[in-house]
Every structure is written in C-alpha cells, then in structure tokens.
Amino acid sequence: MAVFPNRKFRGTAEANTIAARYRSALARHPFMLFGLPFIATMVAGSFFLTPATAIRYEKHDRRVRRLSKEEELGIGKAGRKVDMKEEYYRLAAKDLDDWEQKRVKRLAGEHDGVL
User: Fold this and answer.
1) 3-class SS at 104?
2) For residue 33, with 0-12 CB atoms within 10 Å meaning exposed, 13-18 middle and 19 or more buried, which class applies?
3) Per-residue pLDDT at 85 exceeds 90
4) Model's pTM, two decimal places?
5) 36: closest CA among 19, 44, 17?
6) Given this model, what pLDDT does residue 84 score?
7) What is the predicted pLDDT for the residue at 41?
8) Residue 74 Cα distances to 61, 81, 85, angstroms
C-alpha cells in the first residue's frame, strides 16, 4: 500500500505568492514572524492607551472633587451665614425636656427586632 505525503500539494503558481513565502518563513522562524509582532503590538497598545486611561481618571477626579466646608453644608451665596453663638442660643431656646418617643413604621417583611 502506498504512503501519501503529509504536505498538501502546492503548484508553482501558488509557491510564488506572498502568503506561500510567509508560510515557509514562519515554519523556519516562528518567533520572528509571529511572536515578535504580537509582543510589539501589546507594548505599542499599552503606550497608546495610556493617555486614554489618564483622561478617564481625570474626568472622574473632576466629577468627584473635594468640597469646601461651606459647599459640604450646602451654604452658598444664597444661603445664610452660620454663626456658632447664634446657633447655640437658638438650640438652647428649644425645650428639650418635653418630647415624645415615636416608633418608626417598619417596611413589609422586616422584623421589629424583638425576639
């Protein structure tokens, strides 16, 4: 019984194409023609994507910025100025001894904490 060769038959017209030459060179130098371009693409992509990620984080930092004490309290130009003595006397004038405890309504399915 005859043994058939493992390689496909390629005619002389196909042997002169760029793909055929690349295929034969790839068999001899696989890293140079496949591995090195792949690694170069990964490194170049890292350098090209660095500014894009920087823009992303700069946008996040602009959105989440530190607030001053007045901005935190919601006091702007339209709000009233807070004076510590005035607030103290205003709270001291309230009757803190006359109060009533009220139970908060629970959500449906929530237990009331009593076991």
Assistant:
1) coil
2) middle
3) yes
4) 0.38
5) 44
6) 93
7) 95
8) 20, 11, 20
Q: Judge contact between 84 and 73, C-beta under 8 A.
A: no
Determine the Cα–Cα distance for residues 40 and 2; give it in Å rounded to an integer: 46
What DSSP string describes 18-82? HHHHHHHHHHH-HIIIIIHHHHHHHHHHHHHHHHHHHHHHHHHHHHS-PPPHHHHHT--SSSPPP
pLDDT score, position 46? 92
The pLDDT, as a whole number, for residue 92 is 87
| Both tokens assigned to 103 | 């139970």
Token pair listed for 113: 């904490």
Instruction: Look at the block and give the residue holding tokens 């990620």.
Output: 53
Do residues 106 and 100 touch, judged by C-beta distance below 8 A?
no
d(CA 114, CA 112): 6
